[in-house]
Amino acid sequence: MAAQSNNKQSNNKQSNNKRSDNRTGKQTFVFHNRPNIIGAAAVVGEKEGQGPLSQWFDLILDDDTYGEKTWEKSESKMLKKAITMAMDNSGKTKDQMDAMLSGDLINQLMSSSFMARDLEIPFLGMYGACSTMTESLTLGSVLIDGGYADNIVAAASSHYCTAERQFRMPLEHGNQRPPSAQWTATASGAMILSSGPREGQQLIGGKQARNICVTHATIGKIVDAGIKDANQMGAAMAPATVDTIYQHMQDTNREPSFYDVILTGDLGHIGKKIAVDMLRKKGMDLDPVYNDCGAMLFGEEQDTHSGGSGCGCSASVYAGRIFKEMREGTIKNALLISTGALLSTISSQQGESIPGIAHAVALHAE
Q1: How far apart are CA 265 and CA 314, in angstroms?
Q2: pLDDT of 168
Q3: Which is nearest to 105 in space by CA: 222, 194, 192, 230?
Q4: Coil, strand or helix at 212
């Protein structure tokens, strides 16, 4: 009996040591096997394609219906296109994908579920509102790092027309949007995670592409600022964003200057200012490396008020601009934080406040 007890204690000690090696601080995972991002693609709508980031997107639609009869079918088709383009970019086929992690804003993850029905890849539906892209990247990296999978699809999407119809007013109403409102992006983004790098990939001009890997992921806590106005999502999400960024720096013992870029998505112009002010009060200054996807996606002349939002906003910026810049070597270290306002059509009508969430992933180009 004593021998059995000693064996159990030894096994528990080994298990605890392994677990501690895979974590640092309170909320951050460490990926020792460094899952690789070997391909990515971003598909956006017409308005997004007219914005300042147009050169980074892989496909810009001429018509936001994408040839479909409903907005919901259009969004699902966009998501499917982003995923198939990302797989092509990675040199992998759908038969080589062990799982697909994807989410959107529509009830029962309609866009992702119907896309997964068509692609026939094992599917895990993700819902973190606009934080879905980094949630998918985090859990996909866990599967890769743990040896449970070799190739994973991580993706997310949104569509202005589907989100407006579900969360606010039918488009036909033509209701006036307050200055604090954000514009849900018609966009989708996908990244392919793999246990090994893509060999021999070259950029235009013969330059060797950098290998991009996921090194850390910080899972956020829900922070509720008590805001009930669905047109103030940036303000509702900012405290959760601040909490995750601050915790990530504490857990990893890093300063913001370690990163070439720290990018949130999507606080918009108002939420971005709030987050910057809150972090400064904590003694953390993100200048000059910080920006927000919602503040970047549209130009001032496009009249989106406080900027962009939606799962597809950060997903398209990450899979478009950030992936390409890291592959080219312009960015070496990046911290990506997708932010989500976890309201529903029911909770707002019942007078509930809006819980906020934010997850972070750290990327390194080598």
Answers
A1: 5
A2: 59
A3: 230
A4: strand
Helix or strand holding residue 117 (H, E): helix 110-119
Kindly state the tokens that stand for 325. Answer: 């810049």
Measured CA to CA, the distance from residue 271 to residue 235 in angstroms comes to 5
Place of tokens 């496009």: 302
pTM for the whole structure: 0.92
Pairing verdict, β 187-194 and 151-158: antiparallel
Q: What is the distance of C-alpha 197 from the center of its chain?
A: 21
Nearest to 336 by CA among 130, 183, 198: 130
Pairing of strands 212-218, 28-30: antiparallel
pLDDT tens by residue, 292-347: 999 999 999 998 989 999 999 999 999 999 999 999 999 999 999 999 999 888 88
Residue with tokens 């909770």: 347
CA angle 122, 125, 126 (to 5 degrees): 135
pLDDT number for residue 164:
76
8 Å CB contact between 306 and 180: yes
* Neighbouring C-beta atoms of residue 224, cutoff 10 Å: 15
pLDDT for the residue numbered 175: 63
What single DSSP character describes residue 129? Answer: T
Neighbours of 238 (CB within 10 A): 30
Q: In angstroms, what CA-CA distances link 207 with 327, 329, 332?
A: 10, 10, 16
Q: Measured between alpha carbons, how far is 202 from 40 in angstroms, rounded to an integer?
A: 15
How far CA 163 is from CA of 190, 196, 238, in Å, comes to 20, 37, 21
pLDDT of residue 6: 55
What single string gives the DSSP state of each residue in 272-295? Answer: HHHHHHHHHHTT---TTTEEEHHH
Q: How far is residue 223's CA from residue 143's CA, in Å, rounded to a whole number?
A: 27
- The span from the CA of 253 to the CA of 313, in Å, is 29
Q: Measured between alpha carbons, how far apart are the two ends of the chain, in Å?
A: 51
Task: Compute the distance between CA of residue 71 and CA of residue 207 in angstroms, rounded to an integer.
Answer: 40
Residues of the chain with pLDDT under 50: 1, 8, 15, 173
